[in-house]
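Run: sequence + flavin-adenine dinucleotide -> complex structure.
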Amino acid sequence: MTSAHPGLPEFDYVKPSDLSEASQFLALHVSDARPFSGGTDTFVRMRDGFFNPKYLVDVKNLEGTRILKFDASEGLTIGSAIPMNQVVAFSEAAAYYPLLVDAAKSVASYQLRSRATIIGNICNASPAGDTIGACLAYDGVLNVHGLDGHKKLPLKDFFTGPGKNLLKPGDIVLSITLPVPPKGHAGQYFKLGRNRLSDLSIVGVSALGYKDPSTKSGFTFRLAIASVAPVPFIPTLAEEILSTEPLNPDTINRAAQAAMDAVTPIDDVRGSAQYRKYMVRNLVKRAVNELQHKLTA
Ligand SMILES: Cc1cc2nc3c(=O)[nH]c(=O)nc-3n(C[C@H](O)[C@H](O)[C@H](O)COP(=O)(O)OP(=O)(O)OC[C@H]3O[C@@H](n4cnc5c(N)ncnc54)[C@H](O)[C@@H]3O)c2cc1C
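>> structure
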């Protein structure tokens, strides 16, 4: 009989002393080694038998992974070893990246967030990842070390399918950099779950907006929607409607409808595809209304 509480399979813990050792080890053991940061996805998946690596490679002590800094010209850089609670408590993150802080606070529980990282959330590449939308809206760029040294990967091109991303054997994400956002921008994250705490989203809407004299509406909105497509979804037509037409209830309704028409959710235990679609429309509308209110108050 299958145990209802299976333990972890056996594995070797590997702690490389530098980046090139880490990348080489991961590339050499491509099918039986895995990097981990907070481990909150990794250990649960190992316990549940989804993967069974022979080696778990702890990348938290490597150069560049413990950085958490804001620079007025480069923006915010968050290392892969930094737990979400530390990001939430970082005053410059709260001051300049409110959408990211909102999204991070929505992940599971305080306890889990003391281990879980934003980079782990991204590399896991779940369509439901709560912090991914904010990182997309802020135009995040991943700083990666691989067999050929350092490289940068824009987040917008990173996701290739559920659980899949552009990382190659030996690649380790060291950090993400979020450029300085437009002055006076506002952010809003709406997460619909089966309960208010500790659940993955049925739909998650990340919205960022700012006054922009270069657009016809006078505003630019960035939207990213979780849990309704194989990868975190950017409703480009909805964004376009919001920047090219006067911002009024009719425009906002049509943008929300465009977002709903573009998503391709599935039925699962958390919600039906049809329910998700309707909730995309509702939450996009609510988020844009909220941002309009914040930007014009
Ligand atoms: C009870 C529970 C509740 C949860 N609730 C939520 C929720 O509400 N919202 C949500 O979005 N998620 C949730 N999760 C999922 C998980 O906690 C998050 O995705 C978390 O951010 C993962 O971060 P981590 O550092 O623990 O990742 P890890 O488990 O360390 O890694 C996750 C994946 O990323 C890869 N990886 C990690 N670090 C690196 C790196 N530096 N370079 C390359 N690859 C790397 C690993 O190989 C693995 O595939 C929940 C998980 C649990 C167990």
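>> summary
The domain at 201-296 is CATH 3.30.390.50 (Enolase-like; domain 1). The chain has three domains: 12-58, 68-178, 201-296.
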